[in-house]
Amino acid sequence: MKSIEITKIKSKVAELITKASFNLPPDIKEAVKRSREKETGTAARQVLDLILDNSFAAPRDKLPLCQDCGNTYIDLKIGPGIYIEDSGNLYKHLNDAVSEAYNSNFLRKSIVSDPLYERVNTGNNTPALISTQFGTGPGLEISVSLKGGGSENCSYLSMENPSVGQDRIISLVLELVRTNVTKSCPPVIIGIGIGSTASEVVKLARTAAFRNLSIRNSDKKYQFLERTILKEVNNTGIGPQGLGGMTTAIGCNIEYAPCHIATLPVAVFLQCHCLRRASSKISPS
Q1: What does each C-alpha distance from 173 to 44, 50, 67, 155 come to in angstroms?
Q2: Which pLDDT belongs to residue 205?
């Protein structure tokens, strides 16, 4: 059995939250640069220029990439034979790390304890949304992602008729984009989950939305669907911040899973251009 100290995990989580809050991932930055080169409209190019300017100013001046510092997602993948010290209190320690990172970096706290009645801010951006799974790689993999409320409000779940084909998926996404994308600070990344169950397909969409844009779906049929949806979305001409242009989205990722014969769950996450994620691995002592 290989041990990992809880203090190392807390320190790493706080470090990743800080990194994600101030640093736009390289694949997102490159996608914005490529879109900037293709755009011809003045307004569209100005918006993309501002996004790039912000990506340089945030780490330089220690200012968050976005004023909405988001829900905090923490995903742990535990390797073979790994023992986490004080694992019974793991979630408490992770939330302590979130609180420390948000307070020390002066990040906006956006979580309320009661969703319907009191809606009182918890004051430290906790609780985080934590998931754990077992992996085959050595050590402990930690991934942190932050998602703001504006694009979260544009999430979508549909239980489709199993007889529909890809055309229905394309039209569903286009309808959602036309209705909601300007509320999601475009250009967006479109994360789509297909299959599994109503409760799980939303997780697939979230995973897709935060997947590196250089990684395509391993299934060629879904690769084609990713490319087709991205092309059709950009053909709408909505453009950056809804001001017109060829860049309504900079990416479309799909994750899929087996499902029941009587169902076809579909979920869509619209992720704003300010995609925040960071990951690392801890080796056992």
Answers
A1: 22, 27, 27, 11
A2: 98
